[in-house]
């Protein structure tokens, strides 16, 4: 798999941002498959298989990126394994940090408590960047309603931080559309969702959101941090 020149990719993303501004998820994924062939990867935090299911309708042998931080809930790992079983032709790409959790804690102590920004950098941002360097585009499940920081997410954009095209096919989906799609298509969901976890990340940094708060408010609850550094 050979990646395309960054300048060409940036121009492609900037054109597509306008041309696909009102595209449906199916249209965005059809464009992604036609444009990038094997050179894209679909990200999943294994909260549900909505994005994987949508992408699988367009291409079976997709690569699915899972950031294996070593701090996940057992239910999240179980969901990853279930996704692999339900969609057998896809390939899970586990992106891992250079150090194991034990090695990191031995060297730095409990970074997720003392310096969560650095912990996310080591266990998410760096492995993500390394994995994405092998592709021309990545597909994410970011939605505008996730949080105020995501309100202007386009369907296609240039990801300057990682140097590739970023496609957000369900950016415009409301919670009703999203939940309706899960119900109508019997989509696999992380069992934690039904217990009240509406945005699932690493276990030490994930709580259930309080009533009336946005879905991501349970992430790093009580801290100023709101994003891992992956999307903003
Ligand atoms: Fe570390 Fe928490 Fe970030 Fe996971 S979410 S990488 S445990 S700080």
From TrEMBL:
Which cofactors does this protein require? [4Fe-4S] cluster
Kindly identify the residues recorded as the active site. 228
* UniProt-listed CDD domains: PAPS_reductase
Catalytic activity as recorded in UniProt: [thioredoxin]-disulfide + sulfite + AMP + 2 H(+) = adenosine 5'-phosphosulfate + [thioredoxin]-dithiol
Q: Which family does it belong to?
A: Belongs to the PAPS reductase family. CysH subfamily.
Biological processes annotated in GO: hydrogen sulfide biosynthetic process; sulfate assimilation, phosphoadenylyl sulfate reduction by phosphoadenylyl-sulfate reductase (thioredoxin)
* The name this protein goes by in its record: Adenosine 5'-phosphosulfate reductase
| Segments for region (Disordered) | 211-232
* Compartment(s): Cytoplasm
An annotated Gene Ontology molecular function: metal ion binding
Pathway assignment reads: Sulfur metabolism; hydrogen sulfide biosynthesis; sulfite from sulfate
Residues annotated as binding [4Fe-4S] cluster are: 119-120, 202, 205
In this chain the Phosphoadenosine phosphosulphate reductase domain maps to: 42-207
Q: How is the cofactor bound?
A: Binds 1 [4Fe-4S] cluster per subunit.
Give the top-rank taxon of the lineage listed in the UniProt record for this protein: Bacteria
One Pfam family assigned to this protein is PAPS_reduct
This protein's GO CC annotations = cytoplasm
- Entries under HAMAP family matching the protein: CysH (MF_00063)
- Any idea what job this protein has? Catalyzes the formation of sulfite from adenosine 5'-phosphosulfate (APS) using thioredoxin as an electron donor.
Known EC number = 1.8.4.10
Q: Which UniProt keywords apply?
A: Cytoplasm, Iron, Iron-sulfur, Metal-binding, Oxidoreductase
